[in-house]
Amino acid sequence: MNGKKRLSAAVIARCGIMGGLLFGSQLALAPFANFETVTPLLIIFTIVYGKEAFFAAAVFDLCELAYWGFGLWWISYLYVWSLLILFTLAAKKLLRNDPLLWAAFAAVFGLSFGGLFAAVYIPVSPAYAYSYWLAGLSFDITHGIFNFLLTLALYKPVTLALKKVREFHGQ
Amino acid sequence: MADVKRIAVLCGCGVMFAAAAVIAAANAPKSAEGQKDFTVEVFSERDGIDRTADYTSDLDYFGQWCREQDFIAYEDGSYGIYITAVDGCAENTDEQYWWCITVNGESALTGVDEIPLTDGDIYRLELKHGWE
Asked: What is the pLDDT of residue A71?
């Protein structure tokens, strides 16, 4: 694969659609605390399309910035979702195609979300970062449980649909 | 072999969640029982409001107290109470105006419903501009 192919119109369009799906689904589920499909979808996008998921996450982050405006939370978003993609790429061989294991992976990510998110405050005040993490820990537990259930429910149908689309378009 | 791996991963997850639940429960904000005397400050530079008042209540949490006040408007969501207006001065998220709560000068890290009502504390409701 050369550089020209990676930047083809199909890849750009696909990343735009994936980023838009992430943003739209998050916006639709915003009223429900800790109930989000960004984690399962991003995991599945990474499994099917590999490193292209970084571009999808970038589109998602830019949509968030355009919609909500800038805040320190946005810096957290930049690295938290990138870390999820990195962890997914690293775990791909280990977890193979097992929905239950990916659900457990998503659950652990949900549980760690507050800690990863709070890391941005460490340079300013480690004590504040620690308090921030502790204050949100009960939400992280709920987040992890929902991630587990949603990934378990979405993994097979969405992966299958995306693989069919990929086969249909031949890439 | 695959089943052993699955069971090991699920057990590992269970242990992590149990540990997190124990830490969360041990560090959950707790309220003291009985009557509390406390101060509430309201500040909005946009609306020219800067007032302070003393109150007394037997309630356990600041969110419970807010629900009983006529000068506070709020919405109930899955995160609990969310303050939308104080003294008739409404937030405006399109222009990034929002009501921030501090307790004794420190930003509240929990939702309003989880802030314990404590004797002698100073609760400040301040209309902030810009996301922090």
From this structure: 81
With beta carbons under 8 A apart, name residues in chain A contacting B109.
Answer: 131-132, 134-136
* CB-based contact B23 A134, cutoff 8 Å: yes
Q: What is the pLDDT of residue A7?
A: 66
Q: Which residues numbered 42-101 in B keep a CB inside 8 Å of some CB on A?
A: 77-79, 96
At residue A170, the pLDDT reads 67
Question: b or e along A32-47 (b: 16 or more beta carbons within 10 Å of the residue's beta carbon)?
Answer: ebbebbbbbbbbbbbb
Residue A93 above 50 pLDDT?
yes
Domain limits at B123? 36-129
Domains with residue ranges and CATH for chain A:
3-163 (1.10.1760.20)
Give the C-alpha separation, A89 to A87, whole Å. 5
Q: Are residues B88 and B102 in the same domain?
A: yes
In this complex, the residue of A70, A104, A131 whose CB is nearest that of residue B109 is A131
- Whether A1 shows a pLDDT value over 50: the answer reads no
B21 lies within 8 A of chain A by CB: yes
* For A70, nearest residue in chain B (alpha carbons): B131
pLDDT for residue B33: 80
Distances (CA, A) of A158 to A12, A151, B6, B9: 20, 10, 22, 23
Model confidence band, residue A110 (pLDDT cutoffs 50, 70, 90):
very high
Are residue B51 and residue B24 in the same domain, yes or no? no
